Amino acid sequence: MKKKFLKLFAMIFSVALLVTGCATVSNVYDENGDPIYFETPTFFGGQVAKIGNYLYYANGYTDASAESFDYNTAAQTGYLARIDLSTDFVFDEETEDSLKPNTSPENSEKVSDRFVGYQNQNMFAYGSYLYFTSTNTHRTSSLENDYSRVTLFRVAFNGDNLTEIYTTRYDDSSSIEVVEGSDGNYYYVICAQNSEEKYELSSIKIGDSLGSRVLLAENVESYAIADENSSSKNVIYSATNDDGEIEIKAVDFATEETTDYSYATSIEISFLDRVGDIVFYSADTANSDIEIYYKDVSTFDTNFDASNRFFSADSISEVLAVEGGYVFVSGNGGLIYKTLNGSSVPLLSSDTTFDLLFERDGWIYYSSSTEINRISVVDQTIENVITMTSMISGACGYSDGYIYFFAQLEETESDSSSEDATTDENYYLYRASLDGTGNYQLIGKTI
Fold first, then answer.
1. Considering the chain, what is the average pLDDT of its residues?
2. Rounded (10°) CA dihedral 383, 388, 394, 395
3. 444, CA 20 to 30 Å: which among 39, 107, 110, 295?
4. CB of 219 closer than 8 Å to CB of 240
5. Is pLDDT at 55 greater than 60 in this prediction?
6. To the nearest 10°, the Cα dihedral for 29, 34, 37, 42?
7. How far is 46 from 394, CA to CA, in rounded Å?
8. Contact in structure between 297 and 279 (CB atoms under 8 Å)
9. In whole angstroms, what is the distance from residue 366 CA to residue 47 CA?
10. Span 322-333, mean pLDDT?
11. In sequence order, what DSSP letters do the residues of 83-116 get, joined into one string?
12. Is residue 430 within a helix (H) or strand (E), and if so which, with residue range?
C-alpha cells in the first residue's frame, strides 16, 4: 500500500512540475524586499533588460535567416541568461587580468533554454514577467521548419511559468509594437504579412492576465501605429476596397472601434511612420513626384493631403524625436535631422554603412559590423564608442551607462601563438561604456 501511495505521489508531483514549471534561478527583490514589479512595459533598446540588480540578456547571437541555421545548435549559445551587476564579476583563478575583458564571468545563470539571441528580438519587462520573442519551432504541415515566423513568449523573473503567447509571420515590413490602449491596458499591436504586399493588423492584451488575439484589419497596405506619446491610441492605415478605391481608417486596438477618414481624392497615400501625434506619409500626386508630408492627427480637421510638406524623398523610415525635431533614415540611406518646418541637416551620408540604434541625451547611436559610434544632433560631432573585429550590427541595448552588443571573441597574443588553438566563431554579448571611455567587457558565457 505504501509503495502504491509513493508511486501515485510521484505521478502527481511530476504532473505539477509540467504545469507549474520549476524555478531555475532565485526571484528578484527590490531594496524593500518586495518582488520586482514593472507598472509599465520597460524597454532597454535591445536584447537586454535590467531587473533589479540583474541584467537579463541573450547570451549569444545567431542569424536565424541563414541557410545553415540549426535551432538546437544556436540555442547552445543564444539562451536567456542573467548576471548580478551589484557584485564584482567572478573569473577563473587562472585568468590573467589582461584577458578579463575577453573572458566570460563565471557567475552568470541560465534562466531559460529558449533561443533568444537573433535578429527579430523584442525584449521588455512588464509586471512580474520578462517578455521576449524566439524563432518559431512549430513545423509546417509538410514537417518543415519555418524560421521566418516568430513566437512571442513571457517568463517569470525566476524562470517559472514560461508561456507561449502567439506565433506570427514576420519580415522586414512587419512590426511588433507594445502600446497602452485607450482602456489603460497594454497591448501587442502586430502588423504581419498575410499575402503578397498585404498585411493584417491584430492586437493581444498583455499584463497579469493575457488576452486572446483580436484581428483588427485585413488587406492593409500601409499603417502608422500610435506610440506612448500619441493622444489617440489607434492604428491609422490604408487599404483598397472592393471598388478599387483607397480607404483611410483608424482602428482603436483596445475597443476595435473603427473611424473612417476616407475622402474623394486622386492622391495616393502611403503611411510611413508615427511619432506621438505626427504621422509621416508619402503622397503621389498628378502634379509632382512622390514627396513626404506630415499631419498632426490629434485633430482630424483636415485630410491627408499634399499640403504639409516635410521632406523631398520617396520614403523615410526609423523616425526618432530628438532635440525639438526628428532624426530619420532617408530613402537613399542617409541619416537626416529636421524640424517640421525647418531645413534638413545631413548627419550621415548614404555612403556610410550603418544601422540606427537609439537616441540618448541628444546623441544618436549607430553601428556597423566593426564599430559603434554616436553623433551629436546639436553640432554633428562623431565619437567612437567601441571598435571590434567582428560585431553584429543593429542588435544593441543599453542600461546604466553601458551599451550591450554581440561580437566575436577578440584574438589575443596567446591565442595566435598556440599551434593547437581553435577559433570560436560564435557571437557573444559584450558591453562598453556609452560615452566610449574604458574597455569592452565580455558578458556572455563561451562554449
1. 90
2. -120
3. 39
4. yes
5. yes
6. -50
7. 9
8. yes
9. 16
10. 95
11. EETTSPPP--TT--GGGGGGS--S-EEEEEEEE-
12. strand 427-433
As given in the structure block, the three cell numbers for residue 74 are 544556436
For the cut 90, the answer to whether the pLDDT of residue 25 exceeds it is yes
| The pLDDT of residue 264 is above 70 | no
| Alpha helix stretches (DSSP H) within 216-304 | none
Specify whether the CB–CB gap between 111 and 56 falls below 8 A.
Answer: yes
| Better-predicted residue by pLDDT, 373 or 6 | 373
Q: Where are the domains of the chain?
A: 171-314
Q: Bridge partners of 73?
A: none
Query: What is the DSSP track for 336-372?
Result: EEE-SSS--EEEE-TTS--EEEEEETTEEEEE-SSEE
Question: What's the alpha-carbon Rg for the chain, to the nearest Å?
Answer: 24
Q: Indicate the pTM of the whole model.
A: 0.91
Task: Find all residues with CB under 8 Å of 133, minimum gap 6, and list them.
Answer: 116, 120, 121, 122, 123, 150, 151, 152, 153, 176
